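We read letters as residues; the integers encode the fold. Take this protein.
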Amino acid sequence: METASAHNGTRFYVMAVTPTRLYSFTGIGSLDAIFTSYVDCTVHFMELPGEIPNSELHFFIQQRRAVHFAWLSGAGIYHGDLTFGAQHCSPNGDENFVENKALLDYSKFSEGGEGVKPTSLAISELLLIGNKVKVVNRISEQIVEELYFDQTSDAVSRGIIGLCSDALTGLFYTYDQNSIFQVSVNDEGRDMWKMYLDLKEYAAALASCRDALQRDQVYLVQAEAAFVAKEFLRAASFYAKMNYVSSFEEISLKFISIGEQVCRRKILNVGGDY
């Protein structure tokens, strides 16, 4: 459950799962009033085929706010982003606060054949998935790491039982019948800007950049796409934001070769470091 301030009170957002459905509820007032209101209106839910005995719903908390969710369902891992306090709600106050939804099929992180359903999961910027703990990038849906645990001869593991996270500290833990392990996920967002760039989600790519050189790479891709599309003024505006990747002379020659002197003057006026 999350809350957000609204002009006429506090808006509540609630998510809950059964083995086959994920429900979302929202409304203004008390929780009792919100659930009562659904007697006469449509309840938002996502239903997926298949059942799983260990259906789980997890959230990634950032600055004490849930920003991503992941549901371990029979059909796969259904995950997405959460947006609270949006203005695009219907007259009765109802709204869908889930965005960028996707279903991650279990076959994508199993060794051939039908995907084995995990026993548990946890979510950060990545997904941590048992039985063996596999770290999966939510954006690319690729396994980026597999974790192995040191086990003594008198504590032979029969497999991971579950995963859990501490939202306050950002630490992750997994456990078998004998031991509890702390899972270290270091610098998990280091390559996210590349993932977003490949998807042409430029705003997200820029927000994930760590330095000016990475931002230049994002501006360069946008500039070259605009140049190819003959949107020369737009291309010039992106080139003007770059500091390291291309020199002023290289960029100027591109525009001079096609006679776009206006764009060249735009770079001169905007590109401070040039």
Remarks:
- The longest strand covers residues 9-17.
- The first helix runs from residue 31 to 37.
- Helices lie at 31-37, 192-198, 202-208, 212-228, 232-239, 248-256, 261-270.
